[in-house]
Amino acid sequence: KNQVEQSPQSLIILEGKNCTLQCNYTVSPFSNLRWYKQDTGRGPVSLTIMTFSENTKSNGRYTATLDADTKQSSLHITASQLSDSASYICVVRSITGTASKLTFGTGTRLQVTL
Amino acid sequence: DARVTQTPRHKVTEMGQEVTMRCQPILGHNTVFWYRQTMMQGLELLAYFRNRAPLDDSGMPKDRFSAEMPDATLATLKIQPSEPRDSAVYFCASGLTTGTIRSEAFFGQGTRLTVV
Questions:
Q1: Residue B75 pLDDT level (bands cut at 50, 70, 90)
Q2: How many CB atoms lie within 10 A of CB A48?
Q3: B91-116 per-residue burial string, b: 16 or more CB within 10 A, e: under 16
């Protein structure tokens, strides 16, 4: 069964600290993996997208990594800010022929405090 | 400022009533998605359309849910009759697909539905 597991479920860190969120998946065949940031009461916003051949992708203070062999991805946030408080969702796309399917993780809830 | 617009933002209704949620995709986007988000299940894809044609609605309970695109500027998701377990936030997203190239999906702000 295709699954996307995220950890931790929630995380509290101090402003200025770094953190790493994990995403393990069993989706096959793999097409791409996205990390989304979802602020409370808002829709998700894409942070990064990675295909099979990409190991690292950065977007400002966000750096995503992908190990397609072990089916693991991480999202590293550097020098966290209060505005980073949000849910971070890992989404894996699989494509079979013309059929495309997205499998969502349940997200990591990050809270950045003073 | 191009954005996906969803209405209403909030809806409280009694069990058994019909609920219609509307979505205006970003102008020029040809792919529209409907998602449901709950605390327990996270985000789930209900249906998606390309060029107004439904491509996949396997995630949608067919007995009470229906999704349509009357025209390129409007997508609707209808629940009839609604049940308390339908309480969730419903997101619409749109994107542009050309050939094998898929842009990212841009999400609306969601409709928070509460069925009592």
A1: very high
A2: 21
A3: bbbbbbeeeeebeebbbbbbbbbebe
Closest B-chain CA to A109: B39
**Among residues B99, B88, B70, B75, which one has the least CA distance to residue B26?**
B75
- What band does B100 get if pLDDT is binned at 50, 70 and 90? low
Does the beta-carbon distance from B44 to A104 stay under 8 Å? Answer: yes
pLDDT at residue B54 greater than cutoff 80: yes
3-state secondary structure A24-73: EECCCCCCEEEEEEECCCCCCEEEEEEECCCCEEEECCEEEEEECCCCEE
For residue B8, is pLDDT > 90?
Answer: yes
CA distance B39 to B49: 26
Q: How far apart are CA A105 and CA A28, in angstroms?
A: 15
Nearest to A104 among B43, B56, B104 (CB): B43
Could you list the beta-strand ranges (E) of B1-63.
5-7, 10-13, 19-24, 31-38, 42-50, 53-56
* Residue pLDDT, tens place only, B12-48: 999 999 999 999 999 999 999 999 999 888 899 999 8
